[in-house]
Design a protein that fits this description.
Layout (H helix, E strand, L loop, with lengths): L17 H9 L12 E2 L3 E2 L18 H25 L3 H33 L10
Antiparallel strand pairs: 1-2
Helix pairs in contact: 1-3, 2-3
Length: 134
């Protein structure tokens, strides 16, 4: 019995640039072409890019974008609320109203962008079925 190593002549997949994909994801655009919209509605990822046809349904963003949004908003607004309170001593109701509006606005701004970045990162690293296409 002889030991033969089997070799397959499969071409090495082309490298996908993470930075370009993340920039496209931040703009909620297809990570492959950068032209087509990635999202249908506010947070629903399209099954495929309408421009280049790249399949996007493989993504597994799940709770990642929400976690990142909470982390970023908390790290921005927690020190800011402390600084505003110490420096200006506003009425607590005024402080709570202003920072509630700021928290909601910043969260609504960041959430779809971070979801786009998470999907783009998965695409660029060929995770969760994104490796099937070149």
């Amino acid at each position: 019995m002889t030991d033969q190593s089997m070799t397959f002549d499969t071409p090495e997949p082309e490298e996908r640039q993470v930075s370009a994909a993340l920039r496209r994801g931040w703009r909620c655009r297809c990570p492959a072409c950068g032209s087509g919209p990635m999202l249908r509605g506010y947070l629903t990822v399209r099954d495929a890019c309408p421009v280049c046809g790249e399949e996007l349904h493989h993504h597994r963003a799940d709770d990642g974008p929400a976690y990142l949004t909470i982390l970023i908003v908390g790290h921005i607004l927690a020190p800011l609320i402390l600084w505003v309170f110490v420096k200006f001593r506003p009425d607590p109701m005024v402080l709570a109203t202003i920072f509630t509006i700021g928290t909601v606005a910043l969260s609504l701004f960041l959430l779809p962008r971070l979801k786009g970045m998470v999907v783009a990162m998965q695409w660029s690293r060929r995770m969760h079925g994104f490796a099937q296409r070149g």
